[in-house]
Structures
1.
Amino acid sequence: MNAKVKDNTPRALVEKVEALNDDEIDELCDAAEKAILDGNGFGWLKVPQRGVLDRYWRGVLLMPQRDLFVARLDGAIVGSTQLLRPPPNNEAQAHSAQVTTFFIAPDARGHGLARGLMKAVEDAARAAGFRQIDLDMRATQLPAIQLAEGAGYQRWGTKPGYAYVDGAYVEGYFYTKSLVAA
C-alpha cells in the first residue's frame, strides 16, 4: 500500500512493509537516531546503542499486532509509524487502533511524508474495520500536534506528568479521530 505525498515524484514514497532487508533496517536505525537527537524519538531521549535499535525494528516486524509503515526519500527510509491493533482479548476496544512511534528524520521534512504516513496508517486502519484511531504525544512536539490537529484529530485529554525530559515533567496530549463517515 503506497500513499501519495506532497512531493509525488518517485523521490517521496510512503508504504506499509512486511519485511526489511539489512540495509533498510540500517536506514531505519539512521532515521530513528536523527529523530531522537532532534527530540522526537518516540519515547527515547538518548540514542541507544545501534544493536538496541536494530533489535527493536526487527522485533516490530515480528509482532502480529503491529503494522509498520515507512517513509522513503530518494529510495532511503527516512521515517516511520506503526498501527497498533488491540490484543484479541480486548473485545471492548476492538473498534479502536493506535498510531505509535511516528517520526520523520529532520533532514527529510518538507516533502509531505508525515502527512503521507498519517494518511497511510488511517487508510489501513479503516480498511481493517477500525472505527476510531488514537494517538498521543508530548506537548513540546509542536509540528506533530499541528499535523494531528490538521488531520482532524480531536484532543480529548492532557496528562501533566506524561514524560520526564531534562529534569522536568512535560505534559502529554491524547487525541482521537473517528474513521466512520459522518
Note: The mean pLDDT is 92.
2.
Amino acid sequence: MGSITSSLFISLDGVIESPEKWHFPYFNDEMGAVVGEQMGKADATLLGRQTYDEFASYWPSADPADPITSAMNGARKYVVSSTLDNAEWENSSTVNGDVVAELTRLKADYDLGTTGSATLVRWMLEQGLVDELHLLVHPIVVGSGKKLFADGATVPLRLVSSTTFSTGVLHLVYAPAKA
C-alpha cells in the first residue's frame, strides 16, 4: 500500500507562493536532508496544473550538470487537471475525470509526493487522500501571496512530529486525525 505525502515551504503567515523570494536564507543541511528524504521516498510526483506549468517551463531546459535537473525531468509525474489535455514534459501524464478514484488507485501501488500545488493539496486534504502533510514553517512574515489554507472544509489533523532547525524553521508533520 502506497501513500500521498505533501511537503510545502510555508511562511508564518501561511504564504506558500514564490518561495524563491523568501526561502533560501533559511535553507541549510537540515532542511536539505528532509527535502532529499521526501524526494527519495516518492515513486512519482503529483502536481496541480499551475505548478506543472511552472516546472515544465523551467526543468526541461535547466542546467543538465545539476543532478536535480535529471531527477526532476526523469521522475514520473501525474498532473491533476481538468483543463490540460496533454502533459508533454518527460514522464508526465494527466489525472482527470474521477480524480478521487484515480488517486486512490495510484496510491494503492505507489508512494506519491506533492511539491507546491497548494490548491491540489487543500483539495486532497478535504478528500482525505493525504497521509502525511509536511510543513516547513519559515520564521518570516511574507505579507502577501497565495496561502496554503483558504476558506474551505474543516480538516482535523494530528501532529506526528516536530523538529526545530538551527535556522528557526519548524518541520511539522501532520496526519489525518482519527475520528
Note: Strands lie at 3-11, 44-48, 76-80, 92-95, 111-115, 132-138, 157-164, 170-176.
3.
Amino acid sequence: MLSLETRLKELMLASLAGDARSYGTLLNEVARHLRFYFLRRLSDAHKGDADDLVQETLMALHTRRATYEIDRPFTAWLHAIARYKLIDHFRRNRIRATVPLDDVEDLFATDLSDAASDRMDVERLLEAAPERTRDLIRRTRIEGQSIAEVAESTGLTETTVKVSIHRGIKAIATKLKGRAANDDK
C-alpha cells in the first residue's frame, strides 16, 4: 500500500494534469485527513468547528492548487495551508491555545530539510514488516489515527491491530540492531 504522501501526491499530479476523477478522489481523501488534523488541534469546546475548517482548507487548496510545486512533498504544502486556516480561525474567534509544558517544543520552528530523507528511511525500515502491518503502523504512528479508528476501518479487532503493530515494530527493531551490528564491524 502506498504511503499517504505518495498517494496524495500522485492524485494531485494527476488532477493538475486535468484528471477530474483524481481530483475528486484527492479532495475526499484530503478531507478525511484534514478532519483528523483539525480534531487533534482543537479543544473539546471547538471540535464542532473542524468541518468548517476542512471546508475552508479545501477551498484554499482548490484556489491555490496552481502554486503547488511538484518537486515538493504534497502533505507539507497541504499542512501549511491547514495551519494558516487554523491560525485564522483562532484569531477570528479570539481563541488562545494553551499547550502543556511537555509539548512546548512543538511551538518552535524546526529545520525540516531532512524530512524527505527521513521519510525514505522510515519507508525502508517499514519494509521489514509484512504489508498489512506496514499499513497499520503508517496509519497509527505516522498519520495519527487511533487504534479504534484503524480497527473499525480494517475490520480487525483492536487487539489484533495492537499485536500486529507491536510485532511489526519489533521486526523493525531487529532489523536496526542487525544493521548497527554490521556498522560496528
Note: The longest helix spans residues 158-184.
4.
Amino acid sequence: MPALSEVMKIIGLTGGIASGKSTVASILQKLGAHIFDADIASRQAVARGSQGLQQVIDVFGRDYLTIDGELDRQKIAQLVFENKAALGQLESIVHTYVRSEAKKFLEQCRRQNFSAAVLDVPLLIECGWYKEVDLVWLVAVDEQTQVERAMARSGMSQQEVEVRIAAQMTLAAKCQYADLIIDNSGSLKQTELTVKKEWEKVLQMED
C-alpha cells in the first residue's frame, strides 16, 4: 500500500456480516464517493483463468473447481471455515491481489486529485488495513438485528448465522479501532442522514 496522501483522505469502511456495510457504501457512492470494493476484487482474484485460481488449484487441488472450471466457493468456504491453516493459505493468495488492486485504485484517485476515497474492506481491522487509512468507519447493528438480517438475506438458519458471527472479531473489539461508528439499527433515512453529514465533514477537513 502507498504512503498516505497529504491531500486525499482515505476512509476504511468495514462492518460484520449483515451489518449494512454495503448499504452505507451505496449511500456514499450516491454522494459521489469513489469506492474500492474488496469483495469484488476478492472474486476477481480467483476468477476462472486467473493466476490466483491456478494458485488455488496448486494448493488445494482440482476438487475445488466446478464442472465449468470456476472456484467452487461453497466447497472452499466449508474447508477454510473448519481449517485455519487452509484459510491462511487462501487468504495469502487473495489478499496479494486485493492489495495490489487497492494500491492502483488509490494511485488513480490521487492522480485525479480527489478529496477523499473509500476502501470498502470487510476484514479491514483483522488484516491490519486500519493502519493504512486516515479514518476507520465501522457500520454496526445489535446482534439480534444482525442475526435476523443475515437469515433473511442468506437463507441460513439462526444457528448457522450465530456460528458465523462467533467466528468473527467481536463488535466490541472492532469499536476500539473505529473513528466513527455508524449505527445502522434504525431506518434507512437515519443512516443516510448520518453518512451524508460525516462524508461532508471529511470533504471539509484541512490537511
Note: The two ends are 20 Å apart (CA to CA).
